[in-house]
Amino acid sequence: xxxxxxxxxxxxxxxxxxxxxxxxxxxxxxxxxxxxxxxxxxxxxxxxxxxxxxxxxxxxxxxxxxxxxxxxxxxxxxxxxxxxxxxxxxxxxxxxxxxxxxxxxxxxxxxxxxxxxxxxxxxxxxxxxxxxxxxxx
Length: 137
Prior knowledge:
By secondary structure, this protein is α+β, with helices and mostly antiparallel strands. It contains four helices and five strands; from the N terminus they run ββββααααβ.
């Protein structure tokens, strides 16, 4: 297993400290011959911001580049975006069901408890940007 996540992409815009790169994220079965007839195959376009480039004048709009991130960055992103919210949701659901009889209220409460978590992530976005970095190879 590779220690890097890599996607090829096209430079959309160039700023003094940042490159905006459009990548085509494909599912594993998108290259299958039957992919056009299957609902499981999907392609998504995403824009990735690459910070910390010493000389952005080397890049032009429309240029093809290879964007990489470490596997650790990917796992940390999954942890913050999916695992921790899932644990919060289940914890509030189980604890709330022991004290509140109405299941609908408990379900809404468990979903509402995710709001502060995601607001906190949003408020820490500049700090997270430093931890979740992409590189151009």
